[in-house]
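Students often ask why inverse folding is considered easier than folding. One informal answer: many sequences map to the same fold, so there is more than one right answer. In these notes we will look at a single instance of the problem. The structure comes first.
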């Protein structure tokens, strides 16, 4: 179980690097943001965070439910924002 937790933790950090790294590198550009990578990063963050929460519950830990709920809402908002940005980018490319 510890190996699965560490794999989920590594995936969580990879998702963070994809989301934040892509955002920061795109700040220098004014057009053609790399939104699909941000969507993938946000999805990895959300899914691995839910997995880590489940692992904490399964291993008998005592997680702070309010903190994790707020972090889940923030991750969901990041995913929704990235998806909306991707949809708008594709609409502009088609026009």
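Output (designed amino acids):
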């Amino acid at each position: 179980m510890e190996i699965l937790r560490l794999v989920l933790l590594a995936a969580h950090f990879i998702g963070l690097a994809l989301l934040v790294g892509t955002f920061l590198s795109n700040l220098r550009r004014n057009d053609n943001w790399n939104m699909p990578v941000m969507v993938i990063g946000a999805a990895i963050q959300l899914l691995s965070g839910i997995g880590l929460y489940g692992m904490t519950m399964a291993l008998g830990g005592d997680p702070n439910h309010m903190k994790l709920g707020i972090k889940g809402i923030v991750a969901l908002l990041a995913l929704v924002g990235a998806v909306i940005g991707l949809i708008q980018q594709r609409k502009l490319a088609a026009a």
